[in-house]
Protein: alpha-L-fucosidase
Organism: Candidatus Cryptobacteroides excrementavium
Amino acid sequence: MSLKTSFLTALLSAAVCGTAMVSCGTDAPAPYGVLPSPAQVEWQKMETNMFCHFGPNTFTSAEWGTGQESADLFNPSGMDCRQWASIAKAAGMKGIIITAKHHDGFCLWPNPVSRHTVAQSSWKDGKGDVLKELSEACREYGLKFGVYISPWDRNDPAYGSDEYNEVFRQTLESALGNYGPVFEQWFDGACGEGPNGKRQVYDWNLYHETVYKHQPDAVIFSDIGPGCRWIGNEAGYAGKTCWSTLDTAGFAPGKSPAQDTLNCGNVHGEAWVPGEADVSIRPGWFYKDSENDKVKSVSDLLGIYYASVGRNSLLLLNVPPDKRGLIHSIDSLRLMEFRSALDKIFASDMADGAVAEASSVRGGRKRFSASNILDGDYDSYWCTDDGVTEASVVVNLDGVKTFNRILLQEYIPLGQRIAAFSIDVKDPEGNWVRAAEGTTVGYKRILLADRLTTDAVRINIEKSYACPLINGFGLYLDEIMGETEGWDEPDDSGEIFAAGEPLVLDLGKDTQARGFFYRPKKKGADGCIITYSLAVSPDGTQWQTVFSDKMFENIVNNPVRQDVSFSGPLTFRYIKLTPLRTSDESTYGVAGFGILQ
């Protein structure tokens, strides 16, 4: 080898080595535990998406349709998916997921293996296709497109047999193979068949293979993933401890771990299955005229945001189109107010211009310095040497600042590792005072604090399962929601009854009613009624049965007031609601029970 060749080879080797050092470095921290896929990381960065529940239930005001509704019932008078997309975009959403097939089996696209679809309806003379219109609108507005397809089907005659698995496979192929990229496939685990209903053995391996065949980058949602998991409630909040890892062995969609496990995840869980917090902007999931005055307030939505995105989860906010096929102006206005509030809160970072110093920096190298938590670059981070799992970062602010929101981000591409941390602020005398504390960080953690005024903040990593990696930090002032914390906890309003104990209401005189309502305690505290019988009486002695074995649909996951209509007006003085099955074996809670007039 000539001297010249030898020199060029050495130079090339140094260049290759240098490139490797920049990309992964010999002293870069090793990954810890199970890791997210690139698609899961990009999914989490979306932060907020829109859910659209739309179908026959929109026209019947039901939450779970029977599957026997006429296809002609679905007939939106002025559907415009571009309106949905424009509102979602303006609200800061990154994607839209549509209920392509809910439990009633009705398909919003001409599914060739179903006889209960838009093709059988009179809408657009049977030539309409909601998935086509929405997927095109999403592409036009730069949004990602996702589909919800319920495996439970109250219409398909094959449901409950092995044949249905093939029907469902073809249903997935039809929905996922014809409308362009799908970022998330949503599998609902709900099934209200009851103890004597049809039992379908779902072939989840077949379903997942079908999804990945047509949409290899799709994140699959279910109770246990594999792409992302249900957060354990339909109120939009993750646990204050929230691991993105979950133990899934022995579980399946519809047969999930306990709800508090879903809410918090499992430390050292065997799979990366981050949480998705789904919640509706209204009490119910489908549009109802009666809920136009019950749209969540801006403060409610901010609380949900902090307890979902701010607790290492993604927020999936349901905004249901109305009978016209449009998002109602009340919902749209609230979304714009919500977006405006977020923009106002997060427009000014009180940590801008700050200088950060750490008690430990990996190898003493600038590449891992504390300043990285302030640079806004997602892929740069502060970390310590291996074995150093307790450390602190002091952030000296650019003057005295006032804030009540503290944001931290962990670099999750290398795993989730922080298990306990605290935040101190410096008082006027120069003493460090504890201001907030938490357990997990994950993709993003936002702590709600009392209003704090200081010129220095200290981040204390108190427990980490490997050297900590922090890639983001910010301080913000929320003057809209205020200092509220713990908004997602159940309260004690309402009464508790023994399971099976009837509720009897004396109206004082004969009264005509068109139905009744039942409202569980907040967050379903102390249990709620699932199935019931209902009777009415003129004298409290002779009873007329109105319903003998009826279900409050989806009330366990969404424990809000449910209104139930009679087949026609009834006149009575006494009404008796008898629980047949409750979510708690010994009790159920009641925050409201009365008649509809």
The first strand starts at residue 48 and ends at 52.
